[in-house]
Design a protein that fits this description.
Elements: H1 8-18, H2 23-26, H3 48-59, E1 69-70, H4 83-89, H5 107-124, E2 128-130, H6 136-151, E3 155-159, H7 164-174, E4 180-184, E5 186-187, E6 190-191, H8 193-199, E7 206-210, H9 221-230, E8 234-239, E9 258-262, E10 278-282, E11 293-299, E12 305-312, H10 315-318, H11 332-371, E13 374-376, E14 385-390, H12 394-403, E15 406-407, E16 410-411, H13 412-416, E17 424-428, H14 435-446
Parallel strand pairs: 1-15, 3-4, 3-7, 7-8, 8-9
Antiparallel strand pairs: 2-10, 5-6, 9-10, 11-12, 13-14, 14-17, 16-17
Length: 447
Amino acid sequence: MRYIANTDQQKREMLKEIGVSSFEELIGTIPEEMRFRGELDIPGPLSEAELEEEFADLAKRNADFTSLKPLIGAGAYKHHLPRAIQALLGREEFYTSYTPYQPELSQGTLQAMFELQTYLARLTGMEVVIPSVYDGASATAEAALMSLRLTRKNRIIISSTLHPHYRSVVETYTAPHGTEIIELPYQDGLVAGPRLEKVLTDDTAAVIVQSPNFFGGIEKIAELAGLAHARSALFIQVVAESISLGLLKTPGEMDVDIVAGEAQSLGMELSFGGPYNGYLGARKKYLRQLPGRIAGETVDRDGKRVFVMTSRAREQDIRREKATSCICSNHGLNIIASDIYLSLLGTEGFYQTALLNTRAAHYLEERLVASGGFERVFDYPFFNEFLLRSKKPLPGIRASLLEAGFLPPLALGAFIGDESLENTALFCVTEIFSREKLNRVTQLLST
């Protein structure tokens, strides 16, 4: 705890530096009737020990993901994070790892970018990857804008199983372009090929499909990509749960053109100080239309391994009206967190983590259905999220779960406004759940 009070002399010096004679003059532009008068309704002075105790009592009122096991995902996932991540991220040289205007002077920052690019390229099967694009929603919107520039068309088909928040961001980004957005209805929780064929036209720029989708379903990406390509449209796959890449075929193997993903699951807590970290992957031929930066590896004059900024559009910095995007920030700490996480797990560890996720999710889904208290809404393949309809009112289920230390699943009908999904819950199960915990959830929801 650090607190240093300002003396009266210091206050006078600050006011003088600002160019005013008093605090009243400083706030002179605020109307009199809007100014607070009197004393603040707060406790009197406390000693340091008393204040620490007060803060500790306040903190106890907050719920956290240690005391509450989350059965909710919907774009934000709780995974086990090795303690080594936090220990290494605490090193002070990582705190301000922002990409400088002369990037080669910051070899550590470039190396971190290069390493995550490499990991993500392997996981997605894409030839080029931008490792830092704010979050998954903005990455999806940037992918949509890329498709408009690449095809010179202005019509996009978006699956209704795309995360609603992602959809809203795409609409915001494309609104100034007057883009026509066509919603593709789902069938049994997945995109149906015949339905896509009906709405595809030669003036379609791209088809955007999330997989695993918002309901947790695994889409038939190769089939859908083939339909899009038959009408000269690009195919964009959204990956909100990147752990799934450890088990499923890569987007590159399924002929996807652009991947828009969220890396929160790769080493970041649910609240990582605020930001998450999106990424974009694409075919090499689309490199010039990718926003952001790509780091590369080479050797210097002495043959030593060094890192360089391979691709970076200066328009993003100095000619913004001509830029493909104005995304410039480098989520350096997020990138390093993912680097550490993926380095610690390795190929086999990442695969096993993904396998644990899907086995645990299927175990709970089967147990809940067998209990008689739930029924399946869709018969579809899923990864670590699934949708069930409860035979009891959801508020009662939520209350019993909270009391037992579980954060309830998402009540889907109210979230997306679909009356057919009333009293349905979107469950998420990751590797943090032991079999005993899953049995406890089943017991709670079966009584």
